[in-house]
Design brief:
The longest helix has 16 residues. By secondary structure, the chain is of the alpha+beta class. It is about 40% helix and about 10% strand. The chain contains 34 helices and 18 strands. β4 and β5 form a beta hairpin.
Amino acid sequence: MIRRSLWLLVPVIAFGAVWQALADDQLPPPAALPVTPGWVDEASCQGCHAEQFADWQGSHHQLAMQPATESTVLGNFDQQSLSTDTETSRFFRRDGGFWINTPDAQGKATDYPVAYTFGVEPLQQYFLQLTDGRLQSHGAAWDVPEQRWFHLYDGEGVDHHHRLHWSGAQQNADFMCIECHTTGFKRDYDPATNTYSSQWHALGVGCQSCHGPAAGHLQWAENGGETGTKAGAAKGFEQNRVGAADNQPETCARCHSRRMTLDNGYTHGNHLLDDYLPVILSADLYEVDGKIQDEVFEYGSFQQSRMHAAGVVCSDCHNPHSTQLRAPANAVCTQCHNPGGKATRSAIDASGLQARNYDHPSHHHHPVGSPGSQCVSCHMPGKLYMVNDLRHDHSFTSPDPLQARQLGHSDACLGCHQQAEDKVVTMFQQWYPDAQPRDGGYARDLHAARQGLPGAAQALARQLARSELADIRRATLLSELPSYPSAAAQRAVVEALSSPSPQVRHTAAGLLGSLTAPNQQISLLSALLDDPVRAVRLEAAWQLLQLAGEANVEPQVLQQLIAEYEQSQNSMLERAESQLNLAGIYQLTGRQAEVEPALQQALRQDPTFHPARIMLAQWQEQALGDPEAALALLRDSIAQYPREPSLQHAYGLALVRQGQRGAALQALQRAHELAPEQAEYGYVLAVALHSSGQVEDALALLRSQLEEHPANRRTRQALISYLRSAGNQVEADSLLAELAAQNPEDPLLRQLGH
């Protein structure tokens, strides 16, 4: 049985372009900043750290968020307007302030005052503060280099009904982004009044954002900086981890990563996965060779790099106070990659360095000073996000145009020379005749697994057997194992539960349900309830809760896991995702009266959060015994969101359960049309077609689905079964042979008589 990981429902993207608001045009008085023990004025650092403080002044970190004033607002608010494919906004001045007239949550044009600026280059966004205390960001942004307004979602149909509209729940600045643009931020949401009184110690990312509250450090300095005590060893920072090189990337990752939040902010001194859950290298976010695809920031790609493995940290290349590079252009790379083959710090493992002149045409084969001669052009290709923000990949891959063509990922050489791909491949092979993939075959083996190629299961096993494999890559490869079940796959997941990497342990905990029996799962998961890292404990708790109804989970174990899990969700009650998570907990633990209120609250907070609406319909049908109410809810939802495939799919399944097969087939067909890439929708539609007697249509759909998703075992099993029923044993045997080539140990082979 495969169970979902609940944490996929609470995504938080640091520095992202999405926020939320409700409409009103009167601002509340600003809340006084709290007097928090331990925090000091950032200017206190200047006396002893003048150079670092001077670097920080004017940096993107310092200016990350500022009050909207004449000196901070970069956009043109002199009666400017911006139209998208769905709506128009107007930017103007009034009463000495800056205003935006824009459609509200009901689509009515309303005036909103700008409270804060967000960022300074290459774009600047604007926060609007509403009467309920929350801050929102408008979808319009100011292009600083081009001096023009643009919209982050132009052409995507984003109106007041859309999930990404500035008035929707996905655009809540308090939850989504302010934490990474201020120092000492605490989100303060009151569920009783649905209001915010969030506060921060200081605007901008300051010294204490990374080093922690500095009152103890100041006291340590005033006492002469004694080192003979525990306080002296940490220089007065009780929970400071940023000084240790192996912890520095985690400190930066709090904001420079695609991650999900586990609570209300972070605690200095915690492991990253105590407060956040970074995503793995899923196919929708990263290319198969690990390069960035969607907006994932730097941490995930850097974790994969050979430089990370060698002990290189962020501050080896970047001045953490000014945020500028340590040296201009290629000089930042030749700190280590130089004719002497010596690393810039003794703590960096230099055994993999070659003594050669990399900054020479004999290496890069481009004219000196040209774009092609720059290290970043080949080893850190960039992508534009948020329309005009170029982000460089930090996995530091080497170009491989031949592999790129074979596997379908991007390549620096092919990206620049798009009109001469064949010539590029030939020249690359001539220049680097001995070039081999530097990833140990990771990209090729992952590609084989995702494409269901012959030897896919062996490819995963081969990679997972590597001792030097990056943790994030190991977690990613583990996540592919449910498509290739076997005794070996089961052993790999169980062994991963003891990994020193919490990210690997967390991933393995979520996979146990697909590869092991319930009793074994209970034993293995119960051991993780005392894991030192919170994300692992929470994942184990959720998986155990789902087992409670089908296996014997000790009552005291249930109480332990429920407490921490609910505490995490209760810290995020403003999120529809958390309300849905709590509804799931209430259902699993017998608190039936609390299920529907949580789901209703989820929909009040975010009407576009369709999983809550679908669960509510299922609850009405199955728990309350009112299928008509469930069908009415889904019909009304479809009328409001006619292009949402999940609603059509849920409606179709509900109609099937009520015996209305004709109408069900239409709804399931519509879901598949709206999201043909979703294998689940195609599979269910094929089953429905076959049940209705449309055998050839079902077979044709399953064939096309299997071509798109060759590793999908359920689709393959259904197609084999239907082919046998139709008397087509030859094609069925061929599909079985393909499965045997993918995974000779697949239990389906025995089940289907191969």
